[in-house]
């Protein structure tokens, strides 16, 4: 009976676990948008597709990118940043998210980001529709 109860608890926990996109929306989406901005002056942080473009240009594998992203989000610095200096000048340095996200949540978020951004039709600031 104890094994059955434990198994049901594990199953229930996994059913209610948040997806990467849901976690992104709740933890990151207030600053980083997932779409092309209608009004660039309203941005408070770079859109996620631009961030991920730079991450993927800097790190060759998903594993390397996730290690970087997880470390950077918890302890950001200008020296570690993969964003262009002009973006840091415009938006400032990202604040540490140590108090906002757990390591497990962050891994789920960054894995989802890596798998979904930038979209295949994104080419450095422009969407390709052809």
Written description of the protein model:
The chain is globular. It has helices at residues 2-16, 20-27, 48-58, 62-74, 85-91, 103-116. Helix 2 crosses helix 6 and helix 4 packs across helix 6 (103-116). Helix content is 52%, strand content 0%. It has six helices and no strands. The protein has a single domain (19-116), classed as Cytochrome Bc1 Complex, Chain D, domain 2, CATH 1.10.760. With 130 residues, it is an all-alpha fold.
Summarize the structure.
Helix content is 52%, strand content 0%. The chain contains six helices and no strands.
Query: Under the CATH scheme, which architecture would be assigned?
Result: Orthogonal Bundle
Beta strand count: 0
Morphology: globular
Order of helices and strands: HHHHHH
SS field, number of helical segments: 6
| CATH top level label | Mainly Alpha
Helix content: 40-55%
- Integer average pLDDT: 86
Measured between the Cα atoms of the first and last residue, the distance is 58 Å
The radius of gyration computed from the alpha-carbon positions, rounded to a whole number of angstroms, is 17 Å
Low-confidence stretches: 4-15, 126-130
Described by strand count, sense and barrel closure, the largest sheet is: none
Structural class: mainly alpha
Count of structural domains = 1
As a percent range, the share of strand residues is under 5%
CATH topology label: Cytochrome Bc1 Complex, Chain D, domain 2
Q: Which SSEs are present, and which pair or pack?
A:
Blueprint: H1 2-16, H2 20-27, H3 48-58, H4 62-74, H5 85-91, H6 103-116
Helix pairs in contact: 2-6, 4-6
């Amino acid at each position: 009976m104890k094994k059955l109860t434990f198994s049901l608890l594990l199953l229930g926990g996994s059913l209610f676990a948040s997806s990467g996109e849901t976690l992104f929306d709740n933890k990151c989406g207030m600053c980083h948008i997932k779409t092309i901005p209608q009004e660039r002056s309203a941005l408070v942080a770079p859109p996620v597709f631009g961030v991920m473009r730079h991450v993927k240009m800097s790190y060759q594998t998903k594993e390397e990118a996730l290690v970087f992203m997880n470390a950077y989000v918890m302890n950001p610095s200008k020296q570690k940043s993969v964003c262009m200096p002009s973006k840091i000048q415009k938006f400032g340095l990202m604040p540490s998210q140590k108090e906002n996200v757990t390591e497990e949540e962050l891994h789920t978020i960054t894995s989802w980001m890596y798998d979904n951004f930038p979209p295949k039709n994104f080419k450095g600031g422009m969407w390709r529709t052809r």
